Amino acid sequence: MSEKVEQFHAEGFPTPAPVVEINKTELPNPGSFVHTSDDNIVKENDLVLIYISKTNIRPLVLHKDGRMNTKYGTFLHTEIIGKEYGSQIGKYMNSNQVNRGRQHQKKTGVQEEEESEKKFGFIHVLKPTPELWTLSLPHRTQIVYTFDSSYITERMQINSLSNVLEAGTGSGSLSHQFSRSCKRLFTYEFHEVRKQQAELEFKQHGLLYQDYLDGKVKDKNSANIIINHRDVCKDGFLVDQVENINGDAVFLDLPAPWEAIPHLNKPGVLNQNKQVRICCFSPCFEQVDKTIEALEENGWGGIEMVEIQGRNFEGRKRMVKYIDDAVKVLSDQKERRNLGSVNYKKLKKARQELESKNVTEIDESSDLKRYKTNSTPKDEKFNPFGKGLRIKEGDPIYQWSNVAKVESEIKSHTSYLTFAVKIFNIDRQE
């Protein structure tokens, strides 16, 4: 047995199962989630998160020959390598890229070139963090989002000295959160394929404890995850070669957490010298009822069920509008209706004349072409109430007032969090 394996066993932790074999070119630098103050330059083989839009954050491992396709065009990895994290990288776009998926009229000549030069798209290069990873990770199961996970971590008082047990690894969202906050994370997944996929991601992110023993990750505090393929509802939490896990906090994200709770009573699972806290994540209220019964039967107290509802507010500016603008829009609408009626009559007449002449192609100077495209010029002064050019929010030409707006979409799902506390070895004097 090697010295590293002996060290692993001496600390009382199991040897994780082998990870899935992958191509070396797909592996990022070990410890992609671990950053120091002087580590702000993007390097080759780094795992970065590309912010394209609020709902589109893409993980990317950088290679000198790689490229990434976005709605803004193609970005070479060499355009990203060497930049500082947080950098904005822009790219000019043509009208086809801007209007992708839409039906639009084709434009020719100088007019198309002038418009393409005005259109600009960009991405941001971000450091991986548990919060951003939650928004970009590949979903294998329903995940725990940040506004739930932050509350769970605080309620269970997880700190740098805590050993945490997590049953239901799933997509690994909460595992990343726990890993950053705790001393050691024992995470259990009964589905073998999902376990292998999660283990591979932990390895790529420099979070596996085994990689620290193998010298692939230098920071022992960051490489603190031990993942197990195990059905805790049937087989419990104890794993081979570990006598005492001494868990300080337990998180259960299971279909039937009440079946796993009795296994927590086995010697060596929980820390007997302090308060141990538990949280059960359940999407159904019937699950909460059965979970509470199991907690009471097994000596847990201080039981409380919490439902988290998150709302994000964003600061916006609203244009100040006056009565004169309302009068203007009415006259503007009347003018547009009259113009449309006149153009329709001229268009109909021109079409009839062309049909009588058996004209199959429309000449650029024909009346049909002119009347079909005739409309209010795009560069006409903007009307706050009517149609016209779009205006940038906060344009100093107009007056604005500050408002707060609730974001239309919050990444969350219905869930109930059941918390409880168990106290060991407390002597009470009568």
Notable features of this structure?
alpha/beta; 30% helix; 3 domains; disordered N terminus; Vcp-like ATPase, Chain A, domain 2; 13 helices; Rossmann fold; four-stranded antiparallel sheet; 15 strands; 430 residues
Could you explain the architecture of this structure?
The two termini are 53 Å apart. The longest helix is centred in the last third of the chain and has 34 residues, at 323-356. Helix 4 (130-136) packs antiparallel against helix 6 (173-181), helix 5 packs parallel to helix 6 and helix 12 packs antiparallel against helix 13. Helix content is 30%, strand content 20%. The strands form four sheets. The protein has a seven-stranded mixed β-sheet, with helices on both faces. Strand 1 and strand 2 (56-61) form a beta hairpin. The protein has 13 helices and 15 strands.
How much of the residues is beta strand, in percent? Answer: 15-25%
> Biggest β-sheet: count, sense, barrel?
7 strands, mixed
Structural class: alpha/beta
Task: List the secondary-structure elements in sequence, H or E.
Answer: HEEEEEHHEHHEHEHHEHEHEHEEHHEE
The CATH class assignment of the largest domain is Alpha Beta
Distance between the termini: 53 Å
What is the approximate shape? elongated
Mean pLDDT: 77
Number of helices: 13
| Annotated CATH homologous superfamily of the largest domain | Vaccinia Virus protein VP39
The main sheet orders its strands as 9-8-7-10-11-15-12
Radius of gyration: 31 Å
CATH topology of the largest domain: Rossmann fold
Count of separate structural domains:
3
Low-confidence regions? 1-10, 12-26, 100-117, 371-380
Gross CATH architecture of the largest domain: 3-Layer(aba) Sandwich
Helix content: 25-40%
Beta strand count: 15
